[in-house]
Amino acid sequence: MLPAVAAASLALSHLPRHHHLGRCFHLRRQRLLPATPAKASCGSGRARRLLLAGAFASGDGPSGQDVDYSAGATSSGSAYLGLFVRLLGLDNDARDREHAVCTLYQYSLGGRKSIDEIMQFPGCIVLIISLLKLESTGACEAAAGLLRNITSVQVYRKMAAESGAIEEIISLLCKSTITPEMMEQCLCTIWNFSIDENWRYKILRSDALTKIVSYLDEEDIKVKEAAGGIISNLALSPCNRGALVEAGVIPKLVHLLQTKEDDYKIIRKEARSSLVLLARDDYYHSLIIEEGLVRVPLVGSAVYKAFKPLPHSWPSFPDGSEIQRTSRPSKYGATELLLGLSVNEKDAKPDEAKINAMIGRSNQQFLARVGAIELDDEGNEQSGSEKNDLYTILPWVDGVARLVLILGLEDVSAIKKAARAIGDASINERMRTSFKEAGAVKPLLQLLKHDDVPVREAASYALEKLSDSSVICQKIKAEGGLEPLINIVKDPKTPVKQLEKIVYVLSRMVDLEEVMSAERSIQGDKASGNSAVSHTFVNQEMTSGPILDFDAISRLTKVLKEASPSLQAKVCCVLEHLAVSEQYATAMTATCTGSIIEAILEIGIIHGASADSEDFDNLPSVVTEEVSQAVLAAVRLLTKLLNFDIFVRSINSEKFTSLLRRMLKSSFPLQSKDYIAACLVKLESRAGLSGNHGVSSIDMEITIYQTIPRLVEQMMTAFSFENKRSAVIELNKIISSGVLEYTRAVADTGGIFPLVKMLGEGDGDALEATLAILYNLSMDIENHPAIIAAGAVPLLKRIVLAKGPHWTSAIQLLRTLPV
Fold it and tell me: Out of the domains of life, which is the source (predicted)?
């Protein structure tokens, strides 16, 4: 920087000294110091400072009066700009430089014309930047302020950035001795630079980001505004948003947005703009929602003119439930005025969620009636690719109520945006419950019948996200939502995207119904002691509701054949729920569901990379999560359908048995093999009905690939000794059957090390079973190194020396080992 500053000083040293300039020196020195002629012989530094103090003052005014450096003063002082710029050079006294930059800063406040006159001198920007390194607080503050004004002009911003202004300003900002005034000037200069996307990366790459974010907590409101403006501009670039979030900007912006003081008007605007930009990312949006804010689309004030308040009637909660009428109605109608609530009776008092829903509804409906719910110029500051999709940020109580209010309007675009915003905001149970209490479920179900396809898809998306809550699923059923959902499934014109969302909602409702039925079954068993009665009740409950005809089953089967693995899992879940009825099982058989299940199992084998097949060596051996879930759902559906003779006769049992065996040997998770083993057992028991009597027993394969790995894992991972004890005893029963493959399976699944560990932990029958298993394993010399490496020898010697009840078994095992 110093060579550049020296060059700039040299470039300005040739400026001519106008003859009027010398006369000005003489006149002003005489006028400012009339009573002290001796001081006229001071050095040139003193004379220059006197000039700088009065050069822009009015010629007729008294000394010391306040100077107006605005447009009126610029015309009289512009002739001396060359001198002041030259005095910024390194060859001048530090105090002269300070006074010169202070004067230029005041002159730059005159506007664009004044700044243009300063910038007409080549190299002056470099000299101004060099003053940021001075120890003088006044010089640094004036230089930063002058840079702030210069960088407010786009044509000079690039010049300043290329001259190193960003680095020097950030360096000054990081000084511990910085004053609040200097801090404001620096931040405002950075704010100017952040307008251009080309310079945002420099600000982000520096160490100043964390400091800028911390300035949001400063007491000085001007500093807060400047820091908020910088963050708002940085957030315009998607690549910067991650760094902003990591710096902890979201909680601070939320706090500023929720501050209600009048002085915070600008900072609230900047905070809202930043949060709207950050909310474009789904993850950051969820973080904002966790802080208690909701993103709401701006649909235009004209749209709300269609809002029509409901006529006077007995008050109800936003979700549609009526408020219980009090037994002591008011003579003058106060009961209705107070919404029928009796605050003195705890039974009549609603919970917090209902109270928040009522507050939000009252606020938003009042704003809509008076026409103040949305300003016409709101959101104009937003830009980018989503200019047509403008949003604002509201506290969740008001945001939830406004989104539900928009659902009841007439504008199709507004309804679509609100429905999608409801889905985006339904990230946790609190938000889903809030939308339920605000009355969002009923209008969303009604929108499934809307004429506009995008509106139907948006409503399906919202219901899909909301249905993650069991409370919402119950509300959908209570509102009669099953019928429109099933009608959408039956409609062949339903788009695939919407169908996928509806099937997901149905699968969630099915899961909920099964859980609730199981709970009722347990309660019924306890009450009556008759499990058969409760089971009958469960089946009747599961098949209750709208009856799906053949068209609906055919449509689901077609989706199952063509859908992605994730959707296949959901469709199988719904069909499994229906497969308890022979009517539905017959329809599934007629639509060739068996062949589709067979195809899904074959895909699972391909992805699972069967262990005994050389054709799949080049394919991935790890089963993807989606494919795994689809295959397991298909296996559970197959298990249910095997209860019906008509389905068993329609399939090739040998083919299914072969597929399931290969899956049992594949790399599917061990927990998943429980379903495969159960299906194999059931298929073997039902195979005689298909006319294929040649299906071999599969007990051995189930034991090798499912039972033994499960017991070994239980020994490895169980926390309680009782679970380990039961696993080793059951494993001993299997090994004692004398099947060589069982012993090899124990060694292949890593069972030697947990068994040796049991030698030190077990006693009684657990120790006896462990010694018996290890003795069988020691019969194969290939297992000797693993048994010794696991530390069995010292443990066996300790058992022998203890002369316990099993010491003879221990010494026999020692004799088989090469020790």
Answer: Eukaryota
